[in-house]
Design goal:
Elements lengths: L1 E6 L7 H15 L3 E6 L13 H5 L11 H10 L2 E7 L7 H16 L8 E8 L4 H13 L13 E3 L10 H24 L19
Parallel strand pairs: 1-2, 1-3, 3-4, 4-5
Helix pairs in contact: 1-6, 3-4
Length: 211
């Protein structure tokens, strides 16, 4: 089994990285392979809403010049993902949003590529805006029929300078427990294959209330 973590911070080894590592360390203790991909600070174009990924059905965004399509294929073949971001004006970073908007739009238009994968979100913040950012990240997972492990509080950890989050003893516990619960859920999914039948996939129903 493998989990890929996407770090949306412009600081490659800032507090978001340290939070991610706390979760991944627990997964690795359970024999689960991990990888971190640094998204923050990269020139990633935002989704234009052209809809061509749904017309082409090739599991790709038509926008070129970045790594989004490579990352989509990486998510497709792994068992779980972890998405993490610092807080910028009570929300996720611009680079992370551009990546997630495009990746999750492509997967939704291409037979829901991420359906029933295990996915979790984490946030690193100095003071305020952590829960709103956490909610924003969870929207991508919720709308994709992904399986979401939890911890004993919202997945937010506090610190300003790189590494300070490790002094947030409650936040550290939250990340550790998330990692343990994520490992457990991954194993449940793996061991249920061929034994417990998955719900049938349904086409998305769209309704417009403007008549």
């Amino acid at each position: 089994m493998k989990v890929i973590a996407f770090n949306g911070s412009p600081n490659k080894q800032g507090n978001t990285y340290h939070a991610i590592k706390l979760v991944l360390d627990e997964l690795e203790k359970e024999g689960i392979e991990t990888e971190i991909i640094h998204v923050g600070g990269k020139p990633i174009s935002g989704c234009t809403g052209c809809g061509l990924c749904g017309q082409n059905k090739d599991e790709k965004c038509v926008l070129a010049g970045d790594e989004v399509n490579d990352w989509i294929q990486k998510i497709k073949v792994v068992d779980g993902i972890l998405i993490g971001s610092p807080v910028h004006y009570a929300g996720i970073t611009a680079d992370m949003k551009s990546f997630l908007d495009r990746a999750f739009y492509v997967q939704g238009c291409n037979d829901r590529l991420f359906r029933h994968k295990v996915g979790a979100a984490i946030v690193a913040v100095r003071r305020s805006g952590g829960v709103t950012t956490f909610d924003q990240l969870n929207n991508y997972l919720n709308c994709s029929e992904m399986l979401m492990p939890t911890s004993n509080y919202w997945n937010v950890i506090h610190g300003a300078k790189p590494g300070e989050v490790l002094q947030d003893v409650e936040g550290v516990q939250i990340m550790r427990l998330l990692g343990k619960n994520m490992a457990w859920l991954l194993k449940l999914v793996e061991h249920s294959k061929g034994t417990v039948k998955e719900p049938e996939r349904e086409d998305k129903i769209f309704m417009n209330f403007v008549r």
